[in-house]
Specification:
This protein is an alpha/beta fold. The protein has a domain of 112 residues: Vaccinia Virus protein VP39 (Rossmann fold), CATH 3.40.50. It contains six helices and six strands, in the order βαββαβαββααα. The longest helix has 12 residues. The radius of gyration is 36 Å and the shape is elongated. This is Anamorsin homolog.
Length: 249
């Protein structure tokens, strides 16, 4: 097992495995990690307090038959906590674990033979903090010259005075009547088959609306967003309804 090193502290996670299979696997690992220690955990019993944080160089999960370990988010969260920074997770799963491992914080995820995945914990501890001196940006933070110049105001000639973008007409408060629009077109101009009363209002007339032949009479629950009867109580089918065209929109 090339992913196991001589001085590694290793955790083996198993589920529903035979004792002989577990013993044979542990002996194989011990023959390689001769200066380290090997520990065992059942995947259905391990929890946040089972092992100290950052205590293992490698975690071998579901490598012992019958490979019944379920790699849930909660299990992977425990594993990444108990791994040391840059520690390795070697896991076997018949499903595609690449995205799942990455979403749970693992990096350098690769898929090997026999549905085996190798992933690493980042080179820092979970929840660690570091202060950055932004005055001296590392070279890797350097933006494209044109982008950085645009944000730092490198050329004052290209800066537009926002006060010049509006003229006097833009600053005038609109009249309420000028904001009245047709319920079907969304414009001040009435549509050809206007039924909301805007056409009559523009001509200075008052109109009784035609009889309704749809389900508008049932109430707002059966009316569309542009229905001229919206907000009015239900009425009988075929009943004439007078719209109050003088009310504010």
């Amino acid at each position: 097992m090339e992913f196991v090193k001589k001085a590694d502290n290793i955790l083996v996670i198993w589920n529903n495995s035979e004792q002989n299979d577990i013993a044979n696997f542990v002996n194989e690992i011990k023959s390689i990690a001769t200066e380290g220690n090997v520990f065992l955990e059942n995947s259905t019993m391990i929890n946040d307090s089972s092992r100290p944080k950052s205590s293992f160089d490698a975690v071998l999960c579901n490598l012992i038959p019958p490979h019944f370990v379920e790699h849930s988010d909660s299990l992977l969260a425990i594993i990444i906590k108990i791994l040391k920074p840059s520690g390795r997770l070697i896991v076997k799963d018949n499903t595609d674990l690449s995205s799942t491992l990455k979403l749970n914080g693992f990096v350098n995820v690769t898929k090997g033979a026999n549905n085996t995945y190798i992933a690493e914990k980042p080179r820092f501890e979970v929840g660690s903090k570091v202060s950055l001196k932004l005055g001296q940006k590392p070279a890797v933070w350097k933006l494209d010259d044109t982008v950085e110049e645009a944000w730092t105001g490198g050329n004052d000639d290209d800066i537009i005075d926002d006060d010049q973008l509006l003229d006097e007409d833009d600053l005038k408060k609109p009249d309420k009547q000028s904001l009245r629009v047709c319920a079907t077109t969304g414009k001040r101009k009435a549509c050809a088959d206007c039924s909301c009363g805007l056409a009559e209002e523009l001509r200075g007339e008052t109109k009784d609306t035609p009889k309704s032949s749809c389900t508008c009479y049932l109430g707002d629950a059966f009316r569309c967003a542009t229905c001229p009867y919206l907000g009015m109580p239900a009425f009988k089918p075929g009943e004439k309804v007078l719209l109050d065209l003088k009310s504010d929109m």
